[in-house]
Amino acid sequence: MKSEAVLLGIDIGTTATKAVLCDTKGHILAEADAPATLHSPQPGWAEEDPEGWWENIPKIVRRCLQQADLPADSITAIGISGMVPTVILIDAHGRVLRPSIQQNDARAYLEIEELKGKLDEADILRRTGSAITQQSIGPKLLWLRRHEPEVMRHARHVMGSYDFIAYRLTGQLSIERNWALESGLFDLHEEDWDDTLLELATIDRGWLGPVHWAYEVIGTVTRSAAEFTGLAEGIPVVAGSADHIASAFSAGLTKQGDLLIKLGGAGDILYCLDQVIVDPRLFLDYHVVPGKFLLNGCMAASGSIIKWFRNEFAPQASYVDLDREASALGPGAEGLILLPYFLGEKTPIFDPLARGLFLGLTLTHKRAHLYRAILEGISFGFYHHLQVLTELGLTASRARVTNGGSRSLVWKQITADVLGLPLEQIAHHPGSSLGAAFIAGMGTGCFQAWEEIERYINISAVTEPNPEHHARYQQLFALYRQAYERLKDLFPQLAFTSSKFDKE
């Protein structure tokens, strides 16, 4: 008999597959990760290899068990989180048919407009909690029908990133509620798939597994999965959670007014609610705590822009070097503003054809200016969401910051200055993987209350905003917003020109 429960949390992230082992007393026993790669083979496309995620599982499981010096059968339960709502198609034999289409993929802009023309957008927002956007699953499936009919001919099931790993571990098809809700195919009030929307998306219910709450056990690790991953056969696996929801929960967002800024590959901002509020500029998610919700803003690209800039234009420099150079400059990067729409944009403008832009370039600007403008432009994107919340009458009672970008003192300070909010940083925060592990513990009776997540939370630092910098950034933010509004009609022309010449 096991003397202490050990929980495994796995996170399928944009840049890495991560795992954490923890006990139930607030201790992280081990962590491991393996790289994943986002591919953008055409402008606005975002894809990854689901088989690569699966192949990462034995690597990170083995390393976690070695670090913790534990046998595989010591694990009590497994939870999985991941990017949402990705599109993964498998055939009747469980084989992946093509790379995943990521949540920030913007290829289906024509199909988005087509569906908007067929549906009452206000009614769709009321029924599903979200507008029809580049994140919606229906337009992407329509795109696949038209451009990859052979793939769709063999497709038998569609699922998300963490649903896929749960399927590979257990052999059981399942859909977690937030993938269902963010797909745009699920009726928030009826708590069921909407048959009209499924028909427009050209799929039927048979393509979708049963819908589960995050903490519900969907099956156990099969013998074949155990042999592949190094896990023990028979470990319970829960349905799992959207990565941003698991991360918000593990950062302590449990009360109305709690705000989280995630400085990751994509930029997330989440606000905790005690009731349903819908707005066409934001997504609505179920909280892992039943009866609560999260308003969710998600920028298609944030940290991925930083990675792109370094890889393409400063490959010999470290992020520490770039931070040091940027910190020597004042707010505004000497007249340079970035629009961070490198993969189109989701919230709050929902423009899949928007493009990234450096505005104000002169021959005096160096890489430090461009790098600082990137950090500031991403922060302006977060501030735009904060304005939306303010318009809804919602204020932040406390704000926390997580993910890899929170380790950058410069990016964190710029974010605090732009938002005008103190940002609490959590010491050694594993993020989504910890949330997934805790959810698995709740689903298997290892915890009695959701508030027990506080055992794992320790605030290590608070970044206070500089009032003078905040005032300066408010002036620059006005220019940031004007730049998009004045240029947005040009972006479709750029997309048309690009696609026209790509085909010649």
Annotation keywords:
Nucleotidyltransferase, domain 5, globular, seven-stranded mixed β-sheet, 20% strand, 17 helices, alpha+beta, five-stranded mixed β-sheet, 504 residues
Total strand count, please?
24
In terms of quaternary structure, the protein is: single chain
Helix proportion range = 25-40%
The CATH topology name of the largest domain reads Nucleotidyltransferase, domain 5
Strand content: 15-25%
Structural domain tally: 2
Main β sheet profile: 7 strands, mixed
Strand order of the largest sheet: 18-19-17-16-22-23-24
The CATH superfamily name of the largest domain is ATPase, nucleotide binding domain
Overall geometry comes to: globular
First-residue to last-residue Cα separation: 67 Å
> Mean pLDDT score, rounded?
94
Q: Which runs of at least 5 residues are low in confidence (pLDDT < 50)?
A: none
- Cα radius of gyration in angstroms: 22 Å
Number of contiguous helices:
17
Structural class: alpha+beta
Query: What's the CATH class of the largest domain, please?
Result: Alpha Beta
CATH architecture of the largest domain: 2-Layer Sandwich
